[in-house]
Amino acid sequence: MNRLAVLLVALLMAGCSGLVPEPQDGPGRVIDDPMAIPDAVPQDAPRSRYGNPEQYEVFGQTYRVMDSAAGHRERGIASWYGSKFQGRRTSSGEPYDMYAMTAAHKHLPLPTWVEVRHLNTDRSIVVKVNDRGPFADDRIIDLSYAAAAKLGMLERGTAPVEIRVVTPDNATEPVEPAEPAQLATSAAGARGDYWIQMAAFRRASNARQLAQRLQAASLSASATIRQGGDGLHRVRLGPLADTERVDQLKAELQSARFPSGHVIIPAEPSD
């Protein structure tokens, strides 16, 4: 990537949702009936001329744009952004409209349409991904104000979600619950719980050593080891009831000089 392209990407990123220091900002005009807002309609559209470099850097971290969005599904924490960025240029070059059904994602090609399902309520919406972000730790998608209102997550500011890419061909297909292997993240625990996965080891002895070190640090969550069908021994902290507990435990890990790990959400209660 030449210097001009690097500068262009940096300027575009400066106007996107990922630079919001908190997961949400001001709402602007109140939407009286969020459920009356029509979902975004998936289209066969070419990639945007902007916002689709092979990779880009924000806050010293490098992110890669996916070659293809086909079949992509993942679980994680959604946040939203509002009036602070109203009218600013998104990473795709479109002006941000907080009253449109749009979203930001770090890796999906622009544009991509995704269904966003709230894991605690099963409410689903469809949005057009036309921006980059969120770059706050452990948030996988940033919804517009309108999209967050329709999903019912404005008050809390964040929500556990599953997202799946939709196209004109599959947008109306019934959605079957994903198997753990189909998801970007999965974990043991009750539905709606969050876990922080610290590491995965081939050797059980290495997993036990890390779990013992975590226990000795007197953290506010217990360390557990789970062996998956792939033979890996995963060291996890949890369960955590909400994003506030996630952020608290992340701060504890930082103070204790442990890696921050990454958040995972269960696919099924028995997983």
Write the layout of secondary structure elements.
Blueprint: H1 3-14, E1 55-58, E2 61-64, E3 73-81, E4 102-104, E5 112-118, E6 124-131, E7 139-144, H2 145-151, E8 159-166, E9 194-201, H3 204-216, E10 223-227, E11 233-240, H4 243-255, E12 262-264
Account of the protein in words:
By secondary structure, the protein is an alpha+beta fold. The chain folds into two domains: 3-176, Barwin-like endoglucanases; 194-264, Sporulation related repeat (Alpha-Beta Plaits), CATH 3.30.70.1070. Helices cover 17% and strands 27% of the residues. The chain contains four helices and twelve strands. The protein has helices spanning 3-14, 145-151, 204-216, 243-255; strands spanning 55-58, 61-64, 73-81, 102-104, 112-118, 124-131, 139-144, 159-166, 194-201, 223-227, 233-240, 262-264. The protein has a six-stranded mixed barrel with strand order 3-7-4-6-5-8. A hairpin with a 2-residue loop joins strand 1 (55-58) and strand 2. The chain is globular and about 50 Å long. The N and C termini lie far apart (43 Å). The model is unreliable at 1-15, 17-24 and 174-191 (pLDDT under 50).
